[in-house]
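Progress report, Aim 2. The chain analyzed during this reporting quarter is listed below.
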Amino acid sequence: MRASRLVGLLSLLQSRGRMSTQQLASELEVSQRTILRDIEALSTAGIPVYSVRGRLGGFELLDGFTSELPGPWYRPDRRPAGANVQRARIRLSPRGRRLAALLGRPAGLRMRRSPRPEGAAGDWAEGWVRVDSADATVLDMLALGAEAEVVHPADLRARVAETARQIADLHAGPPGRDGDAAIDHAPSADGAPGDQP
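Predicted structure tokens for the chain:
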């Protein structure tokens, strides 16, 4: 658990830049004291993380540092937090929230903390995701299947719907409709599975 939290802490610092102890604790759902211990562990491991004092202070990584960890966490062209950030409003079922936590996607998922909005069905909850790439966000939403719904923006909702329609059409008919010979895996005369002539 601690290893995944350290990776999460590192990815937050790489993707967002300077963050306060309170912000990091809120994102990772741990105490501020735990964040301080984790920052110390990263520093001991050779990660160039340093603190900035003052009202706008926090922790950040040395400029230009990149880790060997998989993922698009470090972007040299990153924008300051809140500058022209496009977000999508989504709804997730309880199973969708568990899937999102297990898959780690969509990245930057923020769930609404207040009671569910009017008109929300059952235990579905509302949240927001950052949209750095519409294509990546469509894939993230499709990875959650019928457990997630894009509410806004309308163009992203339409792209998810169109992609899901294409997938459904592809799987609606017999396999190999594109001209390739389909392989029939029905049981042979002796009852063993195999290809039929």
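The radius of gyration is 22 Å. The chain has a mean pLDDT of 77. These observations will guide the mutagenesis work planned for the next reporting period.
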